[in-house]
């Protein structure tokens, strides 16, 4: 029983937060300790003090101990204790110092494979009371596919007839293979090898376990990323069998919308079409200038049912993975490119949302429908835009007035609402690699950002909002797409950086995207525009999936869920099933068993999304490195994309790939790393290099299969922004953090 005048100690508050990660909001803490009135003000001040001292951090409107392990986390098992209990570390740990140790337990009544050393598992974690033992216990929920100690490499036959393994990871050493362990590998094969124990002298040896394919074939570079990141890419027999046996959906439980001229607008090379759009002016006299927007999304839930082989494989993949030379789909082609793809002129099942907006772009109402539709036209973004710009072709001319112009009129309405909402407006152009028929790089382009792209994007955002609002209103479990505000630590770091440019960012517990937009607007067109955009981006949290809603900071939306791409994202399929259940739209809804697993599923698909992003990025690096391998000693225009104590990362804007310049090659001055200003500057001269600087570099070394490039700086260091006083402050900060490095990288 808590006394009325009781105030918990700091340790009691910290202990409560550690033991109750799901109930650690300010209100929940106050309720737990029966704090009322003035005591709640006291609690607010206490929590702020604990954050300022670095003991707590705020994530998703909940407080957590700094360095604490999430309640549901991916863990890597590394060993056993003296009693044989398995021990693990978080696979992703951002706290200070060594990652915490977790003692592994199996879920009650669990059956199936038992985890072992080297496994990666999904587990619920619980803090312990034992100061001499592991900081947490973990209850295993799922074991990921087992990985051996094998590594990937490219089999090379040298001129003297010996065999080597060329590394495909930047930190991986070169390996020797003896003839008896060649296992049929040929020059240029991508192989999986088992490294032997390193000898005292010479390179370590390895044994070829499997030949995965030849690098002389197309699509070989993406195959490296597929294997390196354990991305499932071959559909099991039972999954293919279920997909091939699927029959086209019928009108049962559906409204007939086949006469509505919905159109798809996608990239020109798109093979699956999961969204179609239509719009008209609102004829309601009470809503002058308003618009009615209809978005229809492929009804994947009609074919992929919970617990079936198709569903299990889709969850395992989590999402489709897009490489420059191939797509690894979440669903087999029979589903993704045929039965679910909203093909022109063919009957297809869909879940549609009809939304009515006021003339100011405010959504007044919406309704969901399970329908049968027939796409009136398959259009590419440039094709639709050209028609609006006065250059229609044979396909767009007949629908210009009846379909396309009303779409653009409706977009003008929605844009007013977007402008009023003020989502985060970062200007970071995306690059696209175009390949030759042999799979090598032809060129890298920055596709033009058209109004057609923005129209579809805004229509999809509003459909996603409508889905989240409907499910929340019906109290139906769902997976939100959440994006937290920048942490207090990142806000303070950004604030310090902006001060070096004489820019200010207001303090306050409730940051808004508009505050960042104000900063970006002030530097628009200035020399440091790219720098500020980059640093603001890096201050942001990472979006993820969760059954607990905290809103989407970047889009400035209170409720948001992914609904519009169920062909390529499992999260959207969950939302579709929820809508079917909540609105009574027929079979294929969310089951009770699935609803109970949403926390686990959200963690899994967040992990597969990060896996896909890493694989896609690695593939681009390898493709560009291979493309530039014959241009060693050439000079390039570059931009500094990262600054560390060890040196500078530079990006070639023309190609979108990164390389490294070691600090030891920058000259005879001693360079000091200023974390606040994102710069390296010379101790004697005060001149140096800063994030986003445009520089000229020479390519001196390439490791194509590892995607690694080393450059030499050709541009002289420049005086950095700020007064001499600022220089001495930065110098003092660097000395305090022992970040002073010499021309050969040694510390002084």
UniProtKB/TrEMBL annotation:
Pfam families hit by this protein: CSD2, RNB, S1
Known catalytic reactions: Exonucleolytic cleavage in the 3'- to 5'-direction to yield nucleoside 5'-phosphates
Start-end of Basic residues biased regions: 725-734
Family matches, as CDD domains: S1_RNase_R
S1 motif domain mapped to chain residues: 633-714
Xref: PANTHER family: DIS3-LIKE EXONUCLEASE 2 (PTHR23355:SF9), RIBONUCLEASE (PTHR23355)
Family classification: Belongs to the RNR ribonuclease family. RNase R subfamily.
Stretches the record annotates as Disordered: 714-748
UniProt protein name: Ribonuclease R
Originating organism: Mesorhizobium vachelliae
Cellular compartments annotated: Cytoplasm
Superkingdom classification of source: Bacteria
EC code(s) of this entry: 3.1.13.1
